[in-house]
């Protein structure tokens, strides 16, 4: 029997360390108290668009059902829509279209 003696790194680098938002002001991604929350939200999404870990961040936000802020390029409203229960009427209307 052969034993795998390959050493794993003590701690693998966290995906967050490669995120485009790492050096951004966190307030940008949580625009509740901003004078123009839509503009802030759009600016945050723009940062996410160029992020090398966008898919991982988005998957993490969805898996943890993150409620607040912009995560993985998704706004609070977009994530709410993803998790909203589909009503039979709404589903039927989409099927007919």
Plain-language structure description:
This protein is mainly alpha-helical. The chain has one domain (18-96). The protein has helices at residues 37-49, 54-63, 76-83, 88-96. The model has no long low-confidence stretch (mean pLDDT 82).
Strand coverage percent: under 5%
Q: What about the largest sheet?
A: none
Number of helical elements: 4
Question: Could you estimate the helical fraction of the residues in percent?
Answer: 40-55%
Terminal residue distance:
61 Å
Salient structural properties:
97 residues, mainly alpha, 4 helices
Give the secondary structure arrangement, pairings included.
Layout: H1 37-49, H2 54-63, H3 76-83, H4 88-96
Care to give the gist of this entry?
By secondary structure, this protein is an all-alpha fold. Helices cover 41% and strands 0% of the residues.
């Amino acid at each position: 029997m052969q034993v795998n003696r390959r050493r794993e790194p003590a701690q693998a680098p966290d995906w967050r360390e490669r995120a485009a938002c790492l050096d951004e002001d966190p307030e940008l991604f949580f625009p509740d108290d901003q004078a123009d929350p839509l503009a802030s939200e759009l600016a945050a999404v723009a940062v996410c668009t160029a992020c090398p870990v966008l898919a991982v961040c988005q998957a993490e936000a969805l898996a943890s059902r993150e409620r607040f802020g912009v995560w993985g390029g998704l706004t609070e409203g977009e994530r709410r829509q993803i998790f909203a229960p589909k009503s039979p009427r709404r589903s039927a209307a989409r099927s007919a279209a």
